[in-house]
Write a structure and sequence with these properties.
It is built from 4 helices and 9 strands; from the N terminus they run H-E-H-E-E-E-E-H-E-E-H-E-E. With 174 residues, it is an alpha+beta fold. The strands form 4 sheets. It has a 3-stranded antiparallel beta sheet with strand order 1-9-8. Strands 2-5 form a two-stranded antiparallel ribbon. Strands 3-4 form a two-stranded antiparallel sheet. The two termini are 30 Å apart. The model has no long low-confidence stretch (mean pLDDT 94).
């Protein structure tokens, strides 16, 4: 008996397909796929969420000071003239950040081994923003599922696909 489904693909293609499925599930919350693929994606996604729940509180709050460029009302940097050159004006800002403890950092890196980087586009030409999926797992899903012992995903059968008759399902986070 095999430990996992091979899904009629070579190893590299299978791993890439499962990684992209898990990434889309974590990012969007639900995906439509075939039943065997959904069962494999479910295993990986549930282990990532369980890892996030285990490490959700392992961080320290640290206050740091950073130099930030001063901006005007239009969002442009304020410049002043010094020695005949235009120089950007900076101001010091105190920020509180979360610093991961070693176990949480390890968990974050384990998640990044599985999840692909995701960029969200706000505009067609610019304003792309990278989505931090491990942060989404730690900050959004871990508190939501903290009191559950497992079963973070659900598979709902929706019928057969028209082209090849494969059973399609919706895989969603509960």
């Amino acid at each position: 008996m095999a430990m996992y489904r091979k899904l009629s693909r070579p190893t590299a293609q299978r791993k890439a397909m499962l990684r992209s499925g898990v990434t889309q599930l974590i990012w969007k919350g639900r995906i439509v796929t075939t039943e065997p693929k959904a069962k494999e994606i479910k295993k990986i996604a549930e282990s990532l969420i369980a890892l996030g729940i285990k490490e959700r509180d392992n961080f320290d709050e640290v206050t740091v000071s950073a130099k930030v460029p001063k901006k005007d009302k239009d969002g442009h940097r304020v410049k002043e003239e010094k020695d005949g050159k235009k120089v950007t004006v900076y101001e010091t800002v105190e920020k509180t950040i979360k610093k991961d403890q070693p176990s949480r950092l390890h968990a974050r890196r384990q998640m990044l081994k599985v999840l692909y980087p995701v960029t969200e586009k706000a505009d067609k030409r610019r304003d792309t923003k990278e989505v931090n999926l491990p942060n989404k797992i730690f900050d959004e899903y871990a508190p939501k599922y903290a009191d559950r012992k497992g079963g973070y995903t659900r598979i709902v059968k929706i019928g057969q696909r028209k082209g090849d008759g494969a059973l399609e399902v919706v895989l969603e986070l509960v």
